[in-house]
User: What shape does this take?
Amino acid sequence: MRHVANGTVRSTAKLELPSRLLELHTGLHEVLKAYKPDEAAVEEIFSNKNPTTTIKLSLARGVILLAPAEKSLPVSQYPANKVKKSVVGAGHASKDQVEMMVSRLLPGVEFHSADSADALAIAICHAHYRTSRVAWSMDKHESQYR
Assistant: This one.
């Protein structure tokens, strides 16, 4: 694993929701164009106490899932506890603990924001689970020919 980049795609708070979603979509496409990833990973949505906030978060997440799908990239999704457990070793780790472990796993990284630290944690989680899935798949495939 090595750090390539990190950052935050933001929308303008004063805009109406459709325009904010478009800004997210455009920003994600810029990231995909600049870095040309082979796949994507996203944290699963959590339930929020405020229904309006949950709906807005769900709409934004839809845009986040759509952008890589438009590029035919596979998208993996991980619950927050799984991300924390794979990076820190505890599913209920604090944000500070996650940032500290991401810094240790990716030496020299400078976080653009707390959100970018979370995104790097998701990428690390994906790298761990993706490697396991690929190895398991290869073992399963090889056993068919024994």
Summary: The mean pLDDT is 90. The longest helix spans residues 114-143. The chain has one domain: 17-143.
